[in-house]
Backbone:
């Protein structure tokens, strides 16, 4: 069950699933939230992590693949969803933190888990949606 209020109007953008488009996803989230939200920087960080995971690990990573980013901002809750073509796996939090403090991989879901109020994923119809709420 979502914490999102019925008053939140979702906004979406679909982008090519390539690393160069992660910035476009962040820019979209920033515009959707506006400058007045105190949680904007956190939403940008976590959205960037989810889009990067989609670009790198989902079925959308194939040539011509796309990722859709949806933002709904209510009075008290922000929900960001990233939808892609299902890959072979599901998003799971690794059982241990990355051992190498310099490693850049395997941190995204740790950040989402640690910094969001809730997160999860849904699969169906060949698509996967990973989401978080602040």
Residues:
């Amino acid at each position: 069950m979502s914490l999102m209020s019925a008053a939140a109007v979702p906004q979406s953008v679909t982008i090519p699933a390539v690393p160069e488009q992660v910035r476009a996803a962040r820019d979209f989230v920033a515009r959707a939230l506006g400058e007045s939200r105190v949680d904007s920087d956190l939403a940008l960080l976590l959205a960037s992590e989810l889009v990067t995971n989609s670009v790198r690990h989902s079925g959308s990573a194939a040539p011509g693949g796309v990722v859709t980013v949806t933002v709904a901002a209510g009075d008290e809750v922000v929900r960001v969803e990233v939808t892609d073509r299902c890959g072979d796996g599901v998003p799971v939090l690794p059982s241990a933190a990355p051992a190498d403090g310099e490693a850049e991989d395997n941190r995204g879901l740790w950040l989402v888990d640690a910094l969001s109020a809730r997160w999860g994923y849904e699969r169906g119809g060949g698509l996967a949606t990973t989401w978080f709420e602040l």
The first helix runs from residue 22 to 33.
